[in-house]
Structures are given as C-alpha cells and as structure tokens.
Amino acid sequence: MLNGKYIEIQNIDHLGIVAGIVDAIGLVEIINELIGEEEGEKVSPGHVVKAMILNGLGFASQPLYMFPKYFETIACEHLIGAGVKPEYLNDDKLGRVMDKLFLKGLDTIFLIIALKAAQKFGVSLSSSHLDSSSMHVHGQYNTSLPEVIFENQ
Predict the structure, then answer these.
(1) How far apart, in Å, do the first and last CA atoms of the chain sit?
(2) Rounded CA gap, 36 and 29, in Å?
(3) Whole-angstrom Cα distance, residue 67 to residue 55?
(4) CB 54 within 8 A of CB 19
C-alpha cells in the first residue's frame, strides 16, 4: 500500500518533450565538447544551455537573476540532469556560459547542432531553401523599364 508521505509530484508540462529532443540530439554533450567543462563545476555548460532552452519556453520575460526560481516549481533534475539543482543555474553561471558560447562562435555552434539534429532525425540535406527576408511580394512585376534621360548639369 502506498503512503502519501512518500509520494512527490513534480510538474514537467510540455518541457518533457523538449528535454527528450535535446537529449536525443545530444546537445549537452555537443556543448560540453565545444566549449569545455571546468573542473569542480556543479553544472556543465551543456546542462546550462538545456536549462536556457527550457526556460525560454515558459519564463522568458523574467530577468536572469530570477532564472533559478523557474526551476523550483518543475522537476529540475528530471528535465535537465541528475544532480542539477535550481540554485546552480544562477545568473553568474549563465553569463559565463553565454560568454564562452559567444567566443566559440554562435554560427559554428548552431551549424554543428543543426547538422546533428538533421542526422538524428533523418532530414534530407540533398536540397535546401533559405529565405532570410522578412518581406514578400506578390502580383506581376513591371518588366518594362522607364527610359531615363540624364542631362548634363
């Protein structure tokens, strides 16, 4: 028979799915390999990045010093990693990890993670489309150009 005092309920909402995808890609290991881990760290840079992703999906408009508070109400160790406590995810740690990510090069890090995700989930790379504009045009183009006359000034 189960006794109520031995049951602990923790909330994971939609974050369990995201954490599972992050784990499937191997993002924590990729980040740790790219920017390195320091001896004696309580939480690795990869776990910090995973926490930032999860935080961005639910507590994004809060200042960084409030970051640990978000993880007090959810299953932090279950979602991020064994031994990771909310107080380890403070604004100082986040800042140091973000500095290292910037120095490594965000474009490089993004490319490595995107390629790993494409490989893991079988996304074909035989063709691609990139539209970096935020504008669109529809209708007919005016293909007749007006005659321009330049006068000597």
Answers:
(1) 99
(2) 10
(3) 8
(4) yes
DSSP-assigned letter for residue 89: S
| Residue 35 binned pLDDT confidence (cut-offs 50, 70, 90) | very high
Smallest Cα–Cα separation from 44: which of 36, 34, 52?
Answer: 36
Angstrom distances, CA of residue 103 to CA of 32, 81, 92, 139: 14, 25, 17, 45
CA distance 77 to 6: 18
Rounded Cα distance between 45 and 35, Å, is 8
The count of other CB atoms within 10 Å of the CB of residue 80 is 27
In this predicted model, what pLDDT tens digit does every residue of 1-14 receive, in sequence order?
566 677 777 778 88
pLDDT tens digits, one per residue of 45-61: 999 999 999 988 876 67
Whole-angstrom distance, CA of residue 45 vs CA of residue 33: 10
| CA 125 to each of CA 26, 53, 106, 115, 116: distance values in angstroms, whole numbers, following the listed order | 20, 25, 21, 9, 12
